[in-house]
Design goal:
Strand content: 5-15%
Oligomer: single chain
Radius of gyration: 27 Å
Shape: elongated
Distance between the termini: 45 Å
Number of strands: 17
Structural class: alpha+beta
Strand order of the largest sheet: 2-1-10-9-6-7
Largest sheet: 6 strands, antiparallel
Number of helices: 22
């Protein structure tokens, strides 16, 4: 039997036909960069994955199957098992290997709901290997499309849709958030279609004001308006026999929308000031990050545009692709994977990326500059585009800098273990430039900014499901700093200081939902989940 008979694997064919999700592990980061993007899909049927140094076997289409292999991973397996409620139970091995879940060190069994797995849970092993635990709804396959990278089911299906759309002349509507790759998809559709030899004519509709939009799109006759000394062809004329890409279609001026509808229906249009119609065979691709269905957009035009709709999945819903993307952007910058700090990769994998792939690319480029200048890049600094909330003037960052080296030690109060500072890793989540284990105070490098006050900390925790990492990112501070602020907060409690009867009562009132219980008790969700597990309550 050859390797293709084993691939990721034959037992999964029924899963793809029925649409049932399959539990999958994707390598986000590995000391051997060639392993990044490899996957294991659980086709065994028993819903249990034994994850260790020599099991299971990871692969990607066309490659040999190999275990993770890295010496820092325990031989004793970490157990991942599907639960009757559709979620997953994770049981770390009895070993010295450090296990992290979504950037937080764990010491006991963890329960994840089906929705959390759908978001992609990030497993860190030995602070060297990162895996994404997620659902897979399609078999891995090699279907490359230039610019559309990714190994997960969402990326595979996006590429399938782009390939299918490229073989037609139907209008295509690309829907997705900013930075999710809509223009990349449009260019791929054009490049893979029968009009590839012709130009792709592109315009951002948000740049066209109402008075000039018709002229830009449809052209104008000589003398049609003041200053029209010659005939103007217009974009539909330029794209005759080619492809016209209308980006930000939701910003099309209302007066022009009926004109677009006409040209889409018949190919005919009339230049401004012209005596007769002209015809264009332009193939139309449109894109928007707006909700065209709930606003004032011309619904008849929308029906014509949506002949073939391709939704562009946001990056937070395909977390399994983040490692492959980081590796690609590093290669574009002429950098090796070893230049990118592991802790920063971990933070990137756990971040929700409101700016999607474009934002990730920018962060990787900025991080490379920081690394090459001898600095330790922090995700909170790299993603901050506006000033973070300011506390009172009495707490300026001089005091933050003075306390900086203690932040990692304080983290142990919530993580149940040592901080990173004593292990050659800076407390801000990156490797210390000196390499001697000294923590580099995050806020000191960020310009001595004021610390958030108690109200801001409480609001951040409330607004982020009582998850420490997300709250820290929203405040623009490091995770260790957040631990210290939580420890000092008069209204935020450690779970071990809450009476067991109160825990039981709150858990029952919240129907067992730990995140809601954490909000009610005002205690971090991750710490509460671990403590409930130790008490046997979850």
């Amino acid at each position: 039997m050859n390797d293709s008979d084993y691939t990721l694997t034959s037992p999964l064919r029924d899963a793809e036909v029925t649409g049932g999700p399959v539990l999958a592990l994707t390598v986000l980061w590995h000391p051997d960069p060639a392993r990044i993007g490899e996957q294991y899909l659980d086709g065994s049927g028993d819903g249990v994955i034994e994850l260790g140094r020599f099991m299971p076997m990871f692969s990607r289409p066309g490659k040999d199957r190999l275990p993770l292999g890295y010496g820092g991973i325990s031989r004793q397996p970490l157990r991942i098992a599907r639960t009757p409620d559709g979620g997953v139970a994770i049981t770390p091995p009895d070993s010295r290997m450090i296990v992290e879940l979504d950037g937080e060190e764990v010491g006991g069994a963890q329960q994840l709901g089906a929705e959390r797995v759908a978001e992609g849970a990030v497993l860190g092993l030995g602070r060297a290997v990162l895996l994404c635990l997620h659902w897979a709804t399609s078999l891995p396959r090699n279907n490359p499309v230039k610019g559309l990278l990714g190994v997960g089911s969402a990326a595979i299906m996006m590429r399938e849709q782009v390939r299918a759309a490229a073989q037609t002349n139907m209008p295509v509507l690309l829907l997705g958030e900013t930075g999710s790759g809509k223009e990349v998809a449009a260019r791929a559709i054009h490049a893979m279609g029968p009009r590839a030899a012709a130009p792709l004519v592109a315009v951002n509709m948000a740049t066209l004001n109402e008075s000039l939009a018709a002229v830009e799109l449809f052209g104008a006759a000589k003398g049609a308006y003041t200053g029209a000394q010659t005939v103007r062809v217009g974009l539909f004329g330029e794209a005759d026999g080619a492809t016209l890409f209308l980006d930000e279609i939701g910003n099309t001026p209302a007066v022009v929308q009926p004109m677009l509808l006409r040209v889409l229906e018949s190919g005919d249009y009339r230049p401004v000031g012209a005596a007769g119609d002209r015809h264009s065979s332009a193939r139309l691709i449109a894109a928007t990050d707006q909700d065209l269905y709930g606003g004032a957009f011309n619904h008849a035009l929308l029906r014509r545009l949506e002949s073939y709709v391709i939704p562009m999945t946001p990056l937070r819903e395909r977390r399994e692709d983040i490692g492959v993307l980081i590796l690609h952007f590093l290669a574009e910058g002429g950098a090796a994977a070893e230049e990118f700090p592991f802790a920063l990769v971990s933070d990137c994998a756990c971040y929700d990326w409101p700016g999607n792939v474009r934002q990730l690319a920018q962060v990787v480029r900025r991080a490379l500059l920081s690394v090459r200048m001898g600095e330790v890049p922090l995700l909170t600094a790299l993603t901050r585009s506006v000033a973070a909330p300011q506390g009172s003037a009495a707490r300026l960052a001089a005091s933050a800098a003075a306390q900086g080296d203690d932040f990692a030690a304080e983290a142990g109060a919530y993580r149940g273990g040592q901080g990173r500072a004593g292990q050659g890793v800076a407390s801000n989540g990156g490797v210390s430039p000196a390499g001697n284990g000294a923590a580099a105070p995050a806020e000191a490098r960020r310009g001595r900014r004021a610390m958030p006050d108690h109200e801001e900390v409480l609001a951040a925790m409330d607004g982020n499901g009582w998850r420490i990492l997300s709250a820290a990112q929203s405040l623009g501070i490091s995770r260790p700093t957040m631990y210290k602020l939580l420890d000092e907060h008069p209204q935020i409690r450690r779970p071990e200081r809450i009476a067991e009867e109160e825990l039981r009562s709150a858990l029952a009132a919240c129907d067992g939902a730990v995140d809601r219980c954490a909000a009610q008790l005002r205690t971090p969700a991750e710490a509460l989940r671990r403590y409930l597990g130790a008490l046997g309550l979850n």
